[in-house]
Every structure is written in C-alpha cells, then in structure tokens.
Write a structure and sequence with these properties.
The chain is α/β, with parallel strands linked by helices and 378 residues long. It folds into two domains: 3-80 and 286-377, Luciferase, Domain 3 (Luciferase, domain 3, Roll); 106-255, Rossmann fold (3-Layer(aba) Sandwich). It is 34% helix and 20% strand. The strands form three sheets. A seven-stranded mixed beta sheet has the order 5-4-6-7-8-9-10. Strands 1, 11, 12, 13 and 14 form a five-stranded mixed beta sheet that branches. It has a two-stranded antiparallel ribbon with strand order 2-3. The longest helix is centred in the C-terminal third of the chain and has 19 residues, at 349-367. The radius of gyration is 21 Å and the shape is globular. The relative contact order is 0.14.
Length: 378
C-alpha cells in the first residue's frame, strides 16, 4: 500500500493508535522525496532513522514556502498537482508563498471529512452562499478549492458564488439570502471575515434584517485580513444573529492556511454536544492533524495548557512537508486548540532562527543571493 493510500485510508477510517507510526513513515517519505526538505534536515544534523517520535520531526516555518519548492521532486511539473498561493495580504504580494499539492484528492478528502464533522454534523444538504470566489474563478486559492468541494458535497442546486477575484457582490448576496428567507430554506454562508464585514455593513446601512430559516449556518474564515477596521470573531457571531437570525452555535470560525491541507473549526453546541455556548471557544483539529505549542526560544513542545508557537503535523500534507510551524501563539490541551494571534518579533526568537536557517540556505542555493538580502526580504 503506497504512503498516499495509507493516508487516505487513515482519513476515512482513522485509528488514533496508528497516527504516530504513520506520521513517521510520512516524514521518512518526505525526507527522501522532497529535496529542499532533505537539505534542511541534513543541515540540522537530523537522521530520519533516529527520529522516534513525531515531536522530533523538524518543522519548517510557513515563511519557508516563500523561498523553496517544498513538494515531492517533480510535482510542480505534474498535470495532476495543484499549486496554491498565499494571499500575500500581510507582507505584500511581491513574495507569495506557494504550496504544491501533488495529490489534490487527499486535500479534498481531508477538507470534506472535517467539514462534515464540524459544519454539517446533521448530514443535510442546503443552499450555499459563497462570499469568496470558487476554484473556476481563482484556481490558485486553496480556500476557493475547499469552497468548491463544499458546494459539490453539501450544496443543493441553490448556490451562488457572490464574489469575483476583484470584488464582493453584496447586492447579489443579499438577494440570494432574501430569496432563501422567502422560501424558508436554510442557507450555509461561507466566506472570509472581510466579506462578512461588507455584507453586514450593507445590511445595516439599508436597515435590513433577514430571518433565515432554522438550521442556517455560517463558516467564517480569514480573521481580520483585508479589513480596514478588524471585526473580531465574536462580532461576526453577534451580527450574524442580529442581521441574519443565525444562532450563535451555528456560526463556526475556521482556522486554516495555504500551507496545510487540513483545517481546525470552532467547537460549539451544534457540532460538539456538551459544549456550552457561553464558554470561551476553542478549536478542534481532525484526527490526522496533530497540533503542539512550542517554546518560542527553544522550539521544544510546551506542556498542555501553556502558550507557545502553534506547530502542526498534517498527514494530508503527505506530498509536501507535514511538519509546519506558524508564527501564531496559542495553547493546546487534550487536543483542543486556542489560537491567540500572531507572535511579535521579540517573542519569536527561536522561530525567527528556524526561518532564517531555512530561507537563507535554500534561497542562496537557488538564486545565489546573500543571507543579508534574504533577511532584508522577510
């Protein structure tokens, strides 16, 4: 059984006790098949045969995806592969990260399986309003791919992508929701926080309050990116209730990134029985995604409940690099994750060291630039 088939099998029929074994097999496959990652590990003196636990697998920073082709050798030339680009909204578009996904069907399996658990646990199809372009309009967007798969898997014939590459069509979105209200048909609204901010602003300015049918839900992704005045997740929940009559438990925030093929979602009373709507929200990863918080200086895993840099081992990244370190602070406890926000430069000394080690080595090898120039570009 190939390593890709093993990962797909785990996603569809996961056995928690086999995660560690499969994760180490994935790491060894990536060491052999991903040239840039192998050079990174060798520079750090890592022998894959000596790595016995997942926590010891060298993680690459999300920033490394800007400097290197972190995919199995030859994937970029494969007609089957997808090349997803980061949005570039934080540092500008002059150097965007890219994630070459050699086997998009594994990304699809991961995305759909956890969407089914966290956004469609009631197993119902419904009208879907996407306030983000779908894959036909934005093929380089991993979010666009995920939204397209969501529509295919969970949508009815009543669906609309009320966004293009350049604009959000708030008027079309409002009309779609008003039609669903008239039919008393539940709607799933998916999109970025910035898109929802535009929708809510339009509804408020027009004095419009819609009463969507019970069972309507919202997936909010993207945080504050793209907003002039950042709207927090709690505000999205409040305004969805005020302006669309979507119950708080049905507004689910997603945490994901181009560099990962798996996502985390809010646990609410809707998707996690026993969770109170009044308690502080945490996020749930799928069984094939392990999350740890690491000390920002030493990069060693923190004990449960202590704050550190969030680091992931994503089995669904089998065709690229599974061990990915972010610049986001958070804590992990009993598998639950709290995301606290981006670390400052001063707090992320160890993270910055790892980023610098990877980017300077790989960029110099590929382009001949100096360490100083690489550092200046970060």
């Amino acid at each position: 059984m190939s390593i890709y088939t093993q990962v797909l099998t785990f996603i569809h029929r996961h056995e928690p006790e086999s995660f560690e074994r499969l994760a180490l097999e994935v790491f060894r496959h990536q060491f052999e098949a991903v040239g840039a990652y192998r050079r990174y590990c060798e520079e750090r003196g890592v022998d894959p045969g000596a790595v016995r636990i997942v926590d010891d697998v060298p993680a690459v920073s999300t920033v490394a995806f800007k400097y290197a082709e972190l995919a199995i050798d030859g994937a970029a030339r494969s007609a089957e592969a997808a090349n997803f680009l980061t949005s570039g909204t934080t540092q500008g578009r002059e150097r965007r990260g890219h994630h070459i996904v050699a086997r998009p069907e594994i990304y699809r399996a991961s995305a759909i399986a956890h969407l089914r658990t966290m956004l469609f646990p009631d197993a119902r199809r419904m009208a879907i309003l996407a306030m983000h372009p779908t894959a036909d309009a934005m093929p380089e967007s991993s979010l666009a791919a995920m939204i397209s798969w969501c529509v295919e898997e969970f949508g009815t014939r009543a669906h609309l992508a009320a966004a293009s590459r350049d604009r959000i069509d708030v008027e079309a979105a409002t009309g779609f929701l008003a039609d669903a209200e008239a039919r008393r048909e539940p709607v799933c609204v998916v999109g970025t926080t910035a898109a929802f901010a535009a929708l809510f602003s339009e509804l408020r300015s027009g004095g419009v309050k819609l009463r969507l049918a019970p069972g309507s839900r919202m997936m909010d992704t993207g945080g504050a990116k793209g907003q002039t005045v950042a709207m927090q997740a709690s505000e999205v929940i409040g305004r969805a209730g005020e302006l669309l009559a979507i119950a708080p438990a049905m507004v689910v925030n997603e945490y994901g990134m181009t560099e990962l093929c798996s996502q985390l979602y809010d646990a609410t009373a809707f998707n996690c029985p026993g969770v109170s709507n009044t308690q502080e929200r945490f996020k749930i990863p799928p069984p094939w995604l392990r999350v740890t918080a690491r000390d920002p200086v030493t990069l060693r895993p923190m004990p449960d409940g202590e704050i550190g840099l969030l680091t992931f081992f994503d089995l669904a990244n089998v065709g690229s690099v599974s061990a990915v370190m972010t610049e986001d602070l958070g804590w992990v406890e009993h598998g639950r994750v709290r995301v606290l926000g981006r670390a400052t430069d001063g707090e992320a000394r160890g993270c910055a060291l790892a980023i610098g080690q990877f980017s300077s080595t790989e960029a110099a090898r590929r382009t001949g630039v100096t360490r100083e120039r690489v550092e200046a570009q970060r």
